[in-house]
Design goal:
Layout lengths: L3 E7 L2 H10 L6 E2 L15 H9 L3 H5 L7 E7 L4 E8 L2 H9 L2 H12 L5 H17 L2 E7 L1
Antiparallel strand pairs: 1-2, 1-5, 3-4, 4-5
């Protein structure tokens, strides 16, 4: 089993870190199950997906201080590795994703993954982005090894 992910909204980095500490995941999340995890939209895919959506270069995207910014992690001292954590998603991606229509998401799925299998996952992530934009929140990725 590889890395797994869940995306959620929070007012700011402090609220996201507090949610991590309390295990209180604010809705909506993707995936939508009570607290499911997915391998569908990987954290490492986000810069490439943002590039497809916004036409910004991956270099420009990864230069954004929020791109893959670590908010909090849980370190296993015995194993010497991070077991899980929360990372920020860029606001530029969230704004563009929130505004994307179904045909745009389909083009993203074809453009990055080569087929439309991921359209459903991108639609759910777009719903989280819409929730965040409507409330002035940010989107975060919870990851787990």
């Amino acid at each position: 089993m590889g890395l797994q992910y869940a995306y959620f909204t929070a007012e700011d980095d402090e609220a996201a870190a507090a949610a991590f500490a309390l295990g209180a995941w604010p809705p909506p999340t993707f995936p939508r199950e009570e607290f499911g995890l997915t391998e569908d939209v990987r954290l490492g895919d986000l810069a490439d997906l943002e590039s497809l959506l916004t036409s910004r270069s991956v270099q420009e995207i990864t230069a954004d201080p929020r791109c893959y910014a670590t908010i909090v992690t849980e370190f296993d001292e015995d194993a010497g590795v991070d077991l899980c954590g929360i990372m920020a998603v860029t606001d530029t991606f969230i704004q563009a994703l929130a505004a994307a229509d179904l045909s745009t998401l389909r083009e993203m799925s074809y453009g990055y993954y080569g087929y439309d299998y991921y359209v459903g996952a991108l639609r759910e992530l777009a719903a989280v982005a819409q929730h965040a934009v409507a409330r002035g929140h940010h989107v975060y990725c919870f990851w787990l090894v």
